[in-house]
Amino acid sequence: MGFFSRLLNFLRIRSNAALYKAEEPGEVMDYSYTKQREQVQQIRRAVADIATSEKQLELQQTELLNKVEKITGQARQALAAGREDLARMALQRKEALVTQLNASEQQIAQVRAQKERLIQMERDVAARVETFHTQKEIVKARYNASQAQVKLHETLSGLSGEMEEVNQAMQRAQEKILLTQARANALDNLLEQGVIGEQTYLGGDTLDRELQKIASQQNVELQLEAMKEQLQLGGPNTQPKQIEGPTSSIE
């Protein structure tokens, strides 16, 4: 097989696959059902046309019968009048009409037989079309149900993926919460044990803070004593003396 033959086969396979994917079973069956109904209508029109032809042949047969009866009566009249020659001529015409009448009878019989066959065909085809219609609706319902099931599975699959991402995010959040809570509990334990204090978070030195606290208390006491002396002596210019705290940390 040459290159171009393989290429044509490949393109044909791809084309068939694309058509298969694009094909909708419901639409195909509806189209087939429409065509079958059109066939039934064509058969019914053919039956109607044959029935019309049968009716025309019957009218022609009736007309021939009337002519035969009329010529038969004319032959009797001619014979009664002694005109045997006219009677013979009338009977000869009658024979020609009888021949036409027999041919008409055969045509009517053929048309009736054909009509009966078409009527039976129309019944059979109509029954098959009705059966196909029932099967078509069942297949369409099953196909629609399967399509809905596929879409549901696809939706659930997508939802499962999203839920997996949500669960992972929730797990990460819980881990962060547990880590933060553990750190908070550890800090609480250190505070209770006195390892760290409030000033630790501010970056101050423990010794400097204690010395500043002592100096502040002493200043308060000195100011208090100075106020007492001022109230007792009445000296308005007496100023309380303050103790300065440490200016640098002790190493």
From TrEMBL:
<comment type="similarity">
    <text>Belongs to the PspA/Vipp/IM30 family.</text>
</comment>
<keyword id="KW-0175">Coiled coil</keyword>
<feature type="coiled-coil region">
    <location>
        <begin position="94"/>
        <end position="121"/>
    </location>
</feature>
<dbReference type="InterPro" id="IPR007157">
    <property type="entry name" value="PspA_VIPP1"/>
</dbReference>
<feature type="region of interest" description="Disordered">
    <location>
        <begin position="231"/>
        <end position="251"/>
    </location>
</feature>
<protein>
    <submittedName>
        <fullName>Phage shock protein A</fullName>
    </submittedName>
</protein>
<dbReference type="Pfam" id="PF04012">
    <property type="entry name" value="PspA_IM30"/>
</dbReference>
<feature type="coiled-coil region">
    <location>
        <begin position="156"/>
        <end position="183"/>
    </location>
</feature>
<feature type="compositionally biased region" description="Polar residues">
    <location>
        <begin position="235"/>
        <end position="251"/>
    </location>
</feature>
